[in-house]
């Protein structure tokens, strides 16, 4: 019996040693996967609490834990509203992730925990969103009653709207003719566009081109590329995702994209130092790093850092009336043009209407002649699915729009977890659909758009 007791005591001691050792390991050198999870949780909670006014526990559960990796259910967050800080830790103890709210520049992930450096990376500007205007959209936010009774049932159809729909807005011939919102969301709620941000960032490139500071054939774009094959990469190569740079966009594990977004305070570092694995202009490789490089390029071409920080609002959001739009900045001062634009569904619809009008707003040309055409021109290397201007001809899910029964001129903004803006020039139609709908659920917004096209074209 004594031998058994000794064995049990030894096993218990071993278990205690393993647990203590594991805890020390998690505390001192947490795995990258846990750091990414906590960084992601802190960032998403920060943006939704401070910009959308949502409850942090609801955001943690609904936006981070419910649709994500099961490990995220172990995350606990703390919010310091006075200092604009959010921290997230596995079990409340390990692999801390941090985020900081910076007013007009939204929230940023702070992977190194250096809040002061992150605060100094962007100017101090309050986020001021004006009250809703009583003018009709797009000049204001008032929406007239639709005169097409066929639209409301389509938006109310759960199968067409998709799981966890948060907003649908239908614009026809320049007017909002139908809209619907999910529980807890409305026309004033800023919503994350994820990769739809890339197309908006491309429009900022176009604005700088119109000012004569950039051209499609510009090369020698970064000093780090001097003297090697990367110096031949052109602005057009980046816009078409044909740079030839290595970049892993797999969200199933720790990859280049998650390292860039949640482990590196300077998002430019990873993509600018990526090796060249294909000749520029010949291979399609979807890359959020490419979009961050585009942000850095247009910011640098403006010359004045303060002007660069003001540019999205002054050159694009302000003229279009996108008063809710916040393009967030990383912890070292580069706009996260790959992923982080928050805007209301009305403002996402304004941007779609801007593109359907060929980059003209209130009679003023704001994008170069032919620039929107690049957003509708396929790249050969993508099999015709991606365009030369950071947009999609393929509908979400991969089929070309025509194969989905949509007009052949349809093109898309598309973002992670079910964000989309369908633009159908021939039908004068923009359809915004926002939600939290992981791709594994198989939802395809083109079915909704197809039904709307049919309803608007029928007598």
Walk me through this protein's architecture.
It is a single chain. With 459 residues, the protein is α+β, with helices and mostly antiparallel strands. Helices cover 35% and strands 15% of the residues. β5 and β6 form a beta hairpin. The chain has two domains: 89 residues, no CATH class; 267 residues, Beta-lactamase (3-Layer(aba) Sandwich). α2 crosses α3 and α2 crosses α9. The model has no long low-confidence stretch (mean pLDDT 93). It has a five-stranded antiparallel sheet with strand order 6-5-14-13-12, with helices on both faces. A four-stranded antiparallel sheet has the order 1-2-3-4. It contains 15 helices and 14 strands.
The average pLDDT score comes to 93
Strand-pairing-aware structural class? alpha+beta
In total, how many beta strands?
14
**Structural domain count:** 2
What's the helical proportion of residues? 25-40%
- The H/E string reads HHHEEEEHHHEEEHHHHHHEEHEEHEEEH
Strand % is 5-15%
Oligomer: single chain
Distance between the termini: 90 Å
Q: What's the level 1 CATH class of the largest domain?
A: Alpha Beta
Q: In the CATH hierarchy, what is the architecture of the largest domain at level 2?
A: 3-Layer(aba) Sandwich
Give the radius of gyration. Answer: 23 Å
Largest sheet: 5 strands, antiparallel
Q: Work out the helix count.
A: 15
Characterize the overall form.
globular
- CATH superfamily placement of the largest domain: DD-peptidase/beta-lactamase superfamily
User: Unreliable runs, pLDDT <50, ≥5 residues?
Assistant: none
In which order are the strands of the major sheet placed? Answer: 6-5-14-13-12
The CATH topology of the largest domain: Beta-lactamase
């Amino acid at each position: 019996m004594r031998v058994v007791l000794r064995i049990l005591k030894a096993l218990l001691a071993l278990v205690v040693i393993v647990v203590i050792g594991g805890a020390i390991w998690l505390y001192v050198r947490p795995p990258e996967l846990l750091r990414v999870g906590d960084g992601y949780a802190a960032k998403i909670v920060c943006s939704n609490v401070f910009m959308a006014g949502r409850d942090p526990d609801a955001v943690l559960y609904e936006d981070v834990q419910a649709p994500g990796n099961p490990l995220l259910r172990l995350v606990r967050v703390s919010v310091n509203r006075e200092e604009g800080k959010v921290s997230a830790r596995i079990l409340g103890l390990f692999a801390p992730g941090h985020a900081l709210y910076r007013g007009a520049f939204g929230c940023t992930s702070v992977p190194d925990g250096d809040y002061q450096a992150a605060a100094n990376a962007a100017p101090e500007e309050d986020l001021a969103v004006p009250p809703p205007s009583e003018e009709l959209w797009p000049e204001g936010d008032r929406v007239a009653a639709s005169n097409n009774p066929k639209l409301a049932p389509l938006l109310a159809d759960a199968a067409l709207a998709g799981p966890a729909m948060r907003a649908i807005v239908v614009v026809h011939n320049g007017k909002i003719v139908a809209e619907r919102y999910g529980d807890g969301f409305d026309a004033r709620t800023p919503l994350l566009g994820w990769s739809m941000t890339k197309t908006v960032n491309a429009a900022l490139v176009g604005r700088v081109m119109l000012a004569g500071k950039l051209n499609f054939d510009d090369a020698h774009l970064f000093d780090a590329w001097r003297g090697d094959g990367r110096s031949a990469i052109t602005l057009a190569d980046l816009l078409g995702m044909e740079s030839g740079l290595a970049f892993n966009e797999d969200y199933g594990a720790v990859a280049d994209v998650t390292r860039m977004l949640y482990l590196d305070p300077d998002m430019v570092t990873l993509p600018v130092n990526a090796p060249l694995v294909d000749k520029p202009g010949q291979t399609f490789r979807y890359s959020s790093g490419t979009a961050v490089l585009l942000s850095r390029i247009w910011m640098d071409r403006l010359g004045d850092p303060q002007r660069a920080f003001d540019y999205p609002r002054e050159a694009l959001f302000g003229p279009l009336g996108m008063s809710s739009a916040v393009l967030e900045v990383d912890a070292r001062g580069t706009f996260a043009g790959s992923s982080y634009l928050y805007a209301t569904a009305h403002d996402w619809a304004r941007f779609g209407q801007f593109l359907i009008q060929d980059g003209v707003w209130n009679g003023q040309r704001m994008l170069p002649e032919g620039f929107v055409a690049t957003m509708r021109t396929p790249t050969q290397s993508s099999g015709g699915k991606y365009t030369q201007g950071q947009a999609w001809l393929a509908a979400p899910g991969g089929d070309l729009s025509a194969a989905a029964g949509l007009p052949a001129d349809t093109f898309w903004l598309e973002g992670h977890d079910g964000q989309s803006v369908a633009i159908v020039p021939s039908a004068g139609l923009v359809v915004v659909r926002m939600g939290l709908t992981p791709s594994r659920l198989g939802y395809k917004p083109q079915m909704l758009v197809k039904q709307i096209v049919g309803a608007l074209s029928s007598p």
